[in-house]
C-alpha cells in the first residue's frame, strides 16, 4: 500500500462497517474498508434472516443476500476495500494507523467494526450443521426451535442470558459447560434455578455432532474422566438445537489502548471511544442488543461523527 491517508479507515466489513462506508462515502469522504474475510463478516454465513426491516424476502433470506446490496452501495460511493489481517494499531497521533500483513493503512479517523466474539463451538463436524441445528444467536433463531430441545454451550453470563431467552421457546434447555460450575452472578444463578426448563451439565464439552441432514446427535466428553456420552434427538422431533456462546474476543489488539468492558469497546451514544477520532460500531461495542439492524444504525452514526470530526479539524 502507498502512504495515502484516507478520511476514514473502517476495520471490518460486516453490516456496521458497510453501513459506515455507505454513509461516509455519500458524505464525500475517502473510505477504506479492511476485511480479512468475506464481505458481510459473520452475517454472510447466516442461513436465514427474518428480522431485518424491509428485507426483500419476508419469509427469510440468507446473510449473503442481505449484505450483497450493501457491498454494491459502498462500491457505488467510492469505498475502497483491502483484504488483510490487521495485527496492530497506533492511535497516538493525529493520523491513525493499522498494521497488517500486507502493509500499513492510514486514516484521519477510524471506525472499529470487528464484530462480537468469533463464533465456534470447536467440535468436529461443526461447520456441516451451521444453520441445520447449530446457531450462535438466540434472538435470531429461537423461533425455529419452538417446542424442541435446545443445548447451549457455555457457562458464562452471556450463555446464561441466552439460555433464559431460549427457554421462552424451547421445550427444554440444557447448558453444557466444561468447567465444574457456571461462572455467573448470584442474581443470574437465581434466575436460572427458578426456570424449570433449564438444566445444567458441568464438566462436559461437545466433542462431535452428527445427523442425517439436520442435527440429531451430540457427543459429549467428560473433562474429568474422558468418558463419552451420546445425546440423541427425540424420535418425534427428529432434530434439536445447539447454540454456541463461546469464542475469542475480536478486540485483543485494543487492550490498553481503548476503554473496554468485558471484551467489548466502550463508546458514548455517538460511537466515540476514549480516543478522539477513533470510533466503534456494531457488535464490537458495549451495547444492549447485537443485531444487523442495530449494527447498521451504529455504523451510520459513526460515519457522520467522522465527518463532523474531520470538518472540525479544517
From TrEMBL:
Keywords: Flavoprotein, Oxidoreductase
Pfam families xrefs: Pyr_redox_2 (PF07992)
Signal peptide feature range: none
Gene Ontology molecular-function annotations: oxidoreductase activity
FAD/NAD(P)-binding domain segment(s): 6-299
InterPro entries cross-referenced by the UniProt entry: FAD/NAD-bd_sf, FAD/NAD-binding_dom, Ferredoxin-NADP_redctase_2
The UniProt record lists the keyword Oxidoreductase: yes
PANTHER family to which the protein is assigned, alphabetical: THIOREDOXIN REDUCTASE 1-RELATED-RELATED (PTHR48105)
Protein name: Thioredoxin reductase
UniProt source species: Vescimonas coprocola
Amino acid at each position: 500500500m502507498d502512504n495515502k491517508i484516507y478520511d476514514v479507515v473502517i476495520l471490518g466489513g460486516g453490516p456496521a462497517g458497510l453501513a459506515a462506508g455507505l454513509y461516509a462515502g455519500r458524505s464525500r469522504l475517502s473510505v477504506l474498508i479492511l476485511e480479512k474475510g468475506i464481505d458481510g463478516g459473520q452475517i454472510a454465513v447466516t442461513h436465514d434472516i427474518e428480522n431485518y426491516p424491509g428485507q426483500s424476502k419476508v419469509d427469510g433470506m440468507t446473510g449473503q443476500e442481505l449484505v450483497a446490496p450493501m457491498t454494491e452501495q459502498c462500491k457505488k460511493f467510492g469505498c475502497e476495500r483491502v483484504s488483510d489481517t490487521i495485527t496492530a494499531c497506533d492511535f497516538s497521533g493525529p493520523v491513525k494507523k493499522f498494521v497488517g500483513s500486507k502493509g500499513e493503512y492510514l486514516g484521519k479517523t477510524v471506525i472499529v467494526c470487528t464484530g462480537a466474539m468469533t463464533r465456534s463451538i470447536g467440535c468436529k463436524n461443526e461447520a456441516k450443521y451451521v444453520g441445520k441445528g447449530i446457531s450462535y444467536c438466540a434472538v435470531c433463531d429461537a423461533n425455529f426451535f419452538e417446542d424442541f430441545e435446545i443445548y447451549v454451550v457455555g457457562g458464562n453470563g452471556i450463555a446464561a442470558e441466552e439460555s433464559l431467552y431460549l427457554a421462552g421457546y424451547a421445550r427444554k434447555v440444557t447448558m453444557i459447560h466444561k468447567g465444574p460450575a457456571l461462572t455467573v452472578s448470584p442474581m443470574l444463578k437465581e434466575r436460572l434455578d427458578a426456570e424449570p426448563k433449564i438444566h445444567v451439565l458441568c464438566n462436559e464439552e461437545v466433542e462431535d455432532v452428527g445427523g442425517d441432514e439436520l442435527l440429531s446427535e451430540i457427543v459429549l466428553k467428560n473433562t474429568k474422566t474422558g468418558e463419552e456420552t451420546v445425546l440423541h434427538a427425540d424420535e418425534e422431533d427428529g432434530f434439536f438445537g445447539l447454540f454456541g456462546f463461546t469464542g475469542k474476543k475480536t478486540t485483543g489488539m485494543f487492550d490498553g489502548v481503548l476503554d473496554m468492558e468485558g471484551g467489548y469497546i466502550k463508546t458514548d451514544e455517538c460511537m466515540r471511544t476514549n480516543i478522539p477520532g477513533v470510533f466503534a460500531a456494531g457488535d464490537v461495542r458495549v451495547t444492549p442488543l447485537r443485531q444487523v439492524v442495530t449494527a447498521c444504525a451504529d455504523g451510520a452514526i459513526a460515519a457522520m461523527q467522522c465527518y463532523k470530526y474531520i470538518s472540525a479539524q479544517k
